[in-house]
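Subject: Interface between my chains keeps coming out wrong

I've been trying for a while to get a sensible model of this assembly. When I model each chain on its own everything looks fine, but I need the whole thing in one frame so I can look at the contacts. Pasting all components below, labels as-is. Any help appreciated, I'm running out of ideas.
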Amino acid sequence: MATRGIDFAQLSLMEALDLAILIEEEAQERYEDFAGQMEQHRTPGAARFFRTMAVNEGRHGSALFDRRTELFGPAPRTVSSAGIFDVEAPDYDEARAFMTPRQAMESALRSEQKAHAFFTEALPGIQDADVKALFEELRDEEAEHEALVLAELAKLPPEPGFSEEEFVDPPAAQ
Amino acid sequence: MSATCEFQAKDYRSDLKPIWCPGCGDFSVVASIYRALAAIGRPPHEIAFVSGIGCSSRIPGYTTAYGFNSVHGRALPIAQGIKLSSPELLVLAAGGDGDGFSIGGGHIAHAIRRNMDLTYIVMDNQIYGLTKGQLSPTSQKGRITCTSHYGSLEAPVNPLLYVLAYGAGFVAQASPTDIAGMAAIIEEAIRYPGFAFVNIQSPCVTYGEEAQQIKGLKAISESLAALGHDSADRLAAMDLAQHYGSKLHLGVFYRDPDPAPTYGDLVRDRQALLSQGALPKERILDLFIKS
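Reply #2:
Try treating it as a single job with all components included. I did that and got this:
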């Protein structure tokens, strides 16, 4: 989780909203990618969960975009996704072939925790009162998302005492 | 932040879905390339991306740049030809350690000595993954694979020392353990006016050993900047590069503070010089007519 070239002390509200939108877009895209990878590896349970997460992130992104448009109209973005790295998106190495739904949810939980930590750590450096309020709101939302994922995890039946990977043929030489 | 952003990372992402194994290190590499290109801001149609053969060589197809998934080990000759004929293009070449340092190994020295203005990214996973796990030129001695049941008897190629010894003007190493750092290094390599080499320790989740996965790589990572390394000092870079395989030094090993002219520059100078006394095309036959 990192950002590059973003000075939180100088962020305007429009830039902060754009940053938040880009963070949600990155997470949406990553969950879609993970869902596609799971579908490719015939792991429908994990794929379904990742698709749900992608829809949720897309919804958050759209809500932020509507707010940004209402406040600032079509003013061009000055924040670049070139400086945003896995803030709310799960790290690429979180994905594994044949993930169980529990493993998929646990990776989403870690991602929500990452995003929560990002907003928490950025807050002390923010000077603009409106940006501060936005970041506090986003931080609290991430805490809510963590709680939602935890609730979903609690609904799952206990994991069997074996890994599905144990039944997968080992990679074979050609 | 005041300038508007003409390009975002997603502008360099193609609709083609990567078919790498879930968790593969190459996902982070392509994501870093999207970000580096967005930071540079060249439109996709001004970029040519050439690769060889292997898992990592699929990478041009996952970008919106002009791509050429070419012949095994031949990314560099093709990339050089493109750069020479279309110097206005930003040219990237990429491949794996097998593609670059085994079958394509002979081409690296020549691209370096010519100082072609291109960036060569090697996704080094110490294994041939596409063909299901055989020894590659950077596999560690003793490595057990399907082609080395009793362990490899060969010492690995050191890609960093290799390119430093041939005089590359820009040499760096990155890893998905630090994706922001990787994007910054790729951006710096692309901006370097001359041959730039980036070795990326990119884990193979299917055939790689535990020590080569993200957790293992993090355990041996050290930032060159934090070590106080002077990237203008080639000998210091070579000294550090000797730790390849035991330590993972991340950052710029060497950046020529006074970059030499590129081959393209020299060719254009030569063409300008020779064209001074040249006859116009319509009088070229005069050369063969005795007065």
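Reply #3:
Confirming on my end. Chain B touches chain A at residues 1-5, 8-10, 17-19, 21-25, 27-28, 31, 35-36, 38-39, 131-134, 146-147, 176, 179-180, 183-184, 203, 205-207, 213-214 (CB under 8 Å).
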